[in-house]
Amino acid sequence: MKEWKILAGLLAVFLLAYFMPLENPKVKDGILEAFSLLQWYARMHTLACVVPALFIAGGIATFLSQASVMRYLGPRANRWLALSVASVSGCVLAVCSCSVLPMFAGIYQLGAGLGPATAFLYSGPAINVLAIFLSARVLGFDIGLARAVGAILFAFILGLLMARFFRKDETTRMEVALQMPEPERSRRSLWQTALFFVCMVLLLVFSDWYNPGDATVSLRDGTVIKANVRYQTAQTVTLQVYDDEWESTGETVTYDRSELVKVEPVPSLTLRVYNIRWYLAAAMFIAVAAMTIAWFSREEFKEWMSATWGFAKLLVPLLFGGVFIVGFISALIPEKQVAALVGDNGLSSNFVASVVGALFYFATLTEVPLTQALMKLGMAAGPALALLLAGPALSLPNMLVIRSVLGNRKTLVFIALVVLMATISGVLFGLIST
């Protein structure tokens, strides 16, 4: 079977290379955009977010007691308490759908129940304080509140349904876990283990801290533009243009750096933290290193590195491949075409918004300015909420990794539930807001 899969993969690559219409301008633009997004992901997101998350996942697999995970998150744990804790866990994490995956894989492999694990998988990127406040400030208080309440309920119900649909599989997992030998007692106290993981999570949060990007841009011809800096390269700067009230006009422009005189960021608490993020991240790194030297043996450190490398081999190729595909697709489907399909609060519009959100990759909080741009182009309130509920929690790279952890059936059900619940939430919000 393995050899047939290898043959099928080689054949697919051959057919793609043989028949790809490179003479088509859209295909050329798609390939360029795919590599551009992959480069951005490698430069701006991998080292700052994915790598720390991989080390956290390796630490979870190595240092957390399996008995503790089983007691609080396992199939025999108090269902309501486990789901409640997992459903609000995103409040302390400011990570995207890809970055939460290593931590999800770590706790699931340790024996966490499918319900709490998938609730955590959704809530990690969907429910963080920055996302809620930014949504309320930029898109309106009603959408911010609906996102906060909807995401918490969403995570709880999602975990509950996943546990119910696959309760037979969970029973089998529990029986296997109970037959495993009792692990050795930890050399560290509970507070030491907790402090170690808190510092690692803070390292992740600070290193991947969001830059709001709002700025006043002065051009050499004397023009002054209020804008959000969407994307930068060594030669160009891409801006989402704002009006005088700092609301998006829906227009995106790209300037050569030689055309710019000054880009002056708009002061905010988020920006102040962003400006010192590396100092904060360095402090957390030093704390983690000191605790590792003081509290962990050489054998434990080697086991931690081995587990981290195992997660890296499993997750990173799928993440990079998924980001590349998303970049190619996004070049073929511009924002104006998407906005044209989601102009009302009907069922089809909300479904399209949920599917688009589920497929495309959003770095932490970038879904907010994108949703704002789409609303300026005509997107209705219901689909906007559906996009915000489905977008941060899922992406094509995310789906590929979830499949490698949960398998085909569970992954398909998880994706279907996210899209279905986001669609229903959008329809209900559309009815209330009209």
CA(first)-CA(last) distance: 55 Å
What does the largest sheet look like?
Answer: 5 strands, antiparallel
Number of strands: 5
Task: Indicate the radius of gyration in whole angstroms.
Answer: 22 Å
User: What's the helical proportion of residues?
Assistant: 55-70%
> What is the overall number of helices?
19
Structural features:
single chain; 434 residues; alpha+beta; SH3 type barrels; 2 domains; 5-stranded antiparallel β-sheet
Give a description of the structure.
With 434 residues, the chain is of the alpha+beta class. The protein has two domains: 25-187 and 297-433, no CATH class; 214-267, SH3 type barrels (Roll). Helices cover 69% and strands 9% of the residues. It contains 19 helices and five strands. The chain has helices at 2-19, 25-63, 66-73, 79-87, 101-109, 114-126, 129-139, 141-165, 167-179, 190-207, 269-275, 277-295, 298-332, 335-341, 347-359, 367-376, 381-390, 396-406, 408-433, and strands spanning 214-219, 224-232, 236-242, 248-256, 260-265. Strands 4-3-2-1-5 form a five-stranded antiparallel sheet. Strand 2 (224-232) and strand 3 (236-242) form a beta hairpin. Helix 2 (25-63) packs antiparallel against helix 10 (190-207) and helix 4 (79-87) packs antiparallel against helix 8 (141-165).
